[in-house]
């Protein structure tokens, strides 16, 4: 395999820390949604890893659907223009939707998604984001479940990419600036 150790400045969140946090949030979600018709909606592609692990950490059954949107393209900054590449297969009517995201950076993707979901008749729509950059927020996103608040650095791994690369790293790491500057 390619040696990518020089591409990373440092590991920010380890696989073990992620696993422990997912167990904690899964227990909380199971309690909060007891008796409710819960639907997990993952935001492709970044949320693939967190959805796979979070869904299996849940002690209850929950169907999954996926929406593919993209605002970053090949760059390191959000374009602010969100494009739907794949819509949901599920009718949200009367569903309790939990959107599963890898990260809230500027907040533009999720605020756009929440607005998009508002007219679809869901009983409720909440957000679980594994990572959040509080100091990078351009718009406020009401996020019920947050894994880790992190500094404003460009991070990759555990689903997060730079130009589609690094998604399959097990930890979340800061990308060395020389890679993208
Ligand atoms: C990334 C990330 C979030 C979003 C967060 O997705 O996975 O979905 O950006 O950034 P924001 O809060 O500034 O909107 P991206 O658009 O890179 O697509 P991807 O998930 O396919 O990598
Ligand atoms: Mn994404
Ligand atoms: Mg991306």
Automatic annotation (TrEMBL):
It is an enzyme of class 2 (transferase). GO terms for cellular component: cytosol. It catalyses: IMP + diphosphate = hypoxanthine + 5-phospho-alpha-D-ribose 1-diphosphate; GMP + diphosphate = guanine + 5-phospho-alpha-D-ribose 1-diphosphate. Its EC number is 2.4.2.8. Residues 16-162 form the Phosphoribosyltransferase domain. PANTHER family: HYPOXANTHINE PHOSPHORIBOSYLTRANSFERASE, HYPOXANTHINE-GUANINE PHOSPHORIBOSYLTRANSFERASE. This is Hypoxanthine phosphoribosyltransferase. It comes from Microbacterium lemovicicum.
